[in-house]
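Data card: per-record layout.
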Amino acid sequence: MGPSESSDMFFFGDFCLDRRGLFCREGGGPLVPVKIGSRALDILKLLVDQAGGLVSKDEIVATVWPQVVVEDSNLTVQISALRHLLDQRSIGGSYIQTVAGRGYRFVAPVTRREASTSAHLTLGTVRSPAQRLSIVVLPFTNLSDNPDQQFFADGITEDLTTCLSRVPHSFVISRHTAFTYQNRRIGAKEIGRELGVRYVLEGSIRRAAKRVRVTVQLVDADTDAHLWAERYDVSWAGVFEVQDEIVTAIVGAIEPELLKVERERISSRPLQSEDAYELYHRGMFHHYRQRRADNIEAQTYFRRALAIEPRYPQVTAALSIALSAAAMFGWSPDADEYFKQAYELAEQAVVLDARYPNSHFALGLVCMWTHRREQALAAFEEAIKLNASFAAAHVLLGQMYLYGDQPEKAIEIAEKGIRLSPNDPRLFIWLPALAGAHYMLRRYAEAIEAGRRSWSLNRSRSFGLRYVVAGLGQLGRIEEARAVLGELKLIDPDLVSIEASYRRNYQNPASVEHIMDGLRKAGFK
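The structure for this 525-residue chain is written out next.
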């Protein structure tokens, strides 16, 4: 039985852990939520609930990583992170004792209080740190004629809460607290003040016959401004199938939107401190701008963050991705060296946190561009397994199938990724996967359309434009092709270099010849 079931509040040192999953620090004033990873928090709950007793490694792994095979190093990393967090102000030794070969024991004195004796510790006294991503998923409203459909609305609320809690650095209010707002007429600003969160996610469901409509919106609790909204219409195939489909779609769209708002908010203000979290988001702000100067800036911020917290898996993976991008786009003085560093960092990120999807994505990316095909496929698939809403992993997995001469499968997977994050800033990189797949299937009109979309989003990258020119050449639209060819040659003046780049990626030489044939028909010589 965990602390969320056996008691309302646990107090140890200057920390408190409550049944709603809030982990806070007391400082003589309001309680302040502490940044902690979801797995570290799960381990802490288990150790605190059995304070003074031995908790075996097997029990911890079975509780925190159910039905997943993990290395001992994953548990060691999480315990180390907990000690670093808890022991900073400790004068009596570590809170967590290692029992060699057996497990761990929480040795600090723990006081338990029921709700009646700790009523003064209300959520209204808790304030999230200003720089942290914090959100509550309010109970979805059932707008169906049948009140029995409320269970479906509640299921979506619970699943969204669970999925969003896996977003790195996020502080997500538990479902138990969120459901106290059910059927209450209260604005987002007031909810934000009461819960100490910056964002409120709310929505409704309506089922009629064999169709379900889900409407969802993200609100900034500070300003009451609507940041994002979407509507999903799906066929009713069964409660769990529909619920999974909708939750996957919402999380796929909302996670990048949340992180985009966070990095833009942080980067819009002067640097407040050498805080690894803030440096990470500032780096991500520059990384997503996809320019040489910004890539260098992103690398600088990531390295500064790692100098503060060397075992930070999110930053380790981000630096790996930034180095791969620099090598891939020609922004590095030595591409081979950058790819070597990126590969080492990606492997390190996986060791630091094998349950963090972006660690596997970073590994897949560098393997994709260094001809480790099987390892790249496995890494992207693992990232998707850990996060079914991981749009970029879907798209690049699709691209791997394109290079492997399976264009139909490439379209299926890449389109799913693009649907998950249709406004992603990396869309100009993703669309050429679709353009290439359609081109290989000789659907030249569709290839041209996808390539033009990519070009319209970023005119400094020629990936999509190549397929536009080649597609027009194959369709015999030579005058139109020549007009576009001029734009392509400003970026890619050398046909030999284009051919060499494709031969590094496509497994089938006939696929490369097919592209080159289209470019030559368009007048590229």
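Known properties of this structure: Residues 1-7, 115-131 have pLDDT under 50 and may be disordered. The radius of gyration is 25 Å.

See the next section for split statistics.
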